[in-house]
Amino acid sequence: MYGPNNGVVLYHYSFSPVARRVLWYLSLRGIDYAECKQPPVLPRPDVATLGIKYRRIPLMAIGRDIYCDSRIILRKLEALFPDSALSASTGEQKAVEKLFEIWTMEAGLFPRASQLIPTSMPLLNDPHFTKDREDYSGRSWSKEQIEANRPEALASIRSAFKVLETTLLADGRDWVLKTDHPTLADIEAIWTFDWLNGLKGALPRELISDKKYPKVFAWIARFNDALKASKAKAPKPATLKGDVAAERIFNASFVEKDLAVDPADPLGLKRGTEVEVFPVDSGTHHRDQGRLIGLTEDEVVLGIQAQGKELHLHYPRTGFRVRAVAATGGTPSKL
């Protein structure tokens, strides 16, 4: 449809819990793709080659369209590969799916989970890693601060386990939407819990275990079994070096051509306005600047120049700020 590996190039690193959402989705769908592995900390020269300042992982390119943030990546995969998509079918199911996305990503469940990273992890003895994560999160990553945050974070996560145990999973269903296979709603709901369960020392088993929350832990085990079976059937991704991935992207075409700026958008921005876009929750110091070419209720699209080529960067609206910048000097204008 889009050339080699469907034109999909996924930039990620292997232990990113957010990137796993996308990797799971690709495996469950059996979508062929290429990957460009990245270091877990900055700098990331492969991403810089594309002219992108956005620092979070994962990133996904399809042709010369590049999608920033796993939420928009999953939405676009559903839209661009509609056959046997994993999204919900009814309005009620779509609401559950969306609420899980909001709960884990926007309402703070994963940030709380990240405060349960064990201080015994070797990476926390690496000053390069902790400094990088402090730049990313805007908070201290000292062992003392992690330990201080742990009780409150643990209370929040235990409450989240109870929510699933006593609501949707309480009737013994296999999957959160009562389907016969995992759906996007399961991915949206499970990734934080699965990550914590696999992170040795994160969960005190006297408080959170398969004995305390048997339905949640059974659901996690079922999901991993289904994922293992899907991976065995799915195409093995091609691994590309950064220069090869960049060449593939620069030589491709755009897959989304009907982009427009909503004239009724509250920001009042016009197509072609020079703007900057950046996340407001983490990685806020890393900001992309370009020409506004798309703006809807759900998405903002920038046109940027790199290596003499135009690329289109797509972001979700929620959790991102869009600001006009002055024509000279690149400073934000007052909105």
Automatic annotation (TrEMBL):
InterPro entries per record: DUF7962, Glutathione-S-Trfase_C-like, Glutathione-S-Trfase_C_sf, Glutathione_S-Trfase_N, Thioredoxin-like_sf
PROSITE patterns hit by this protein: GST_CTER (PS50405)
Domain GST C-terminal: 90-244
Listed name of the protein: GST C-terminal domain-containing protein
Native organism: Cladophialophora yegresii CBS 114405
